[in-house]
Design a protein that fits this description.
Length: 125
């Protein structure tokens, strides 16, 4: 079965039913999903930001995040030293480099809505 690494931008689109969620679903297809552990902290931060911006939607946003945490995502440990090197090499943040590193390690497709990250995957995939 094909493996896809899902980054926080794509997972947040799914979790909060953003318009780009359909594109993410199509990109994932039937693949097994993997991500580094930081994905949950990044999406939690998206949730907290949305709750502050839309206080009237707090319960719905919290519920959407809770539901997202039940998705079948394999959490895979990344090599932090290698991630720092990749961040330096690509100009990505260490957060984004962790997704790129994992995709490369697994020989997986990277599903992201982040253009800079997608471009880095295409260039050195």
């Amino acid at each position: 079965m094909r493996v896809s690494v899902l980054d926080a931008s794509a997972l947040a689109a799914l979790a909060f039913a953003e318009p780009s969620a359909e594109d993410v679903v199509a990109a994932l297809g039937e693949s097994r999903i993997a991500a580094p552990a930081l994905v949950w902290f990044e999406v939690a931060n998206v949730c907290a930001t949305k709750m502050r911006a839309h206080p009237d939607r707090r319960p719905a946003l919290r519920d959407a995040f809770a539901l997202a945490t039940t998705l079948p995502i394999d959490i895979v440990e990344v090599d932090p030293v290698a991630v720092v090197g990749l961040a330096d090499e690509t100009g990505l943040t260490a957060y984004d480099a962790s997704y790129l590193w994992l995709a490369r390690q697994l020989g997986a497709r990277l599903v992201t809505l982040d253009r800079k990250l997608a471009r880095a995957m295409e260039m050195g995939g």
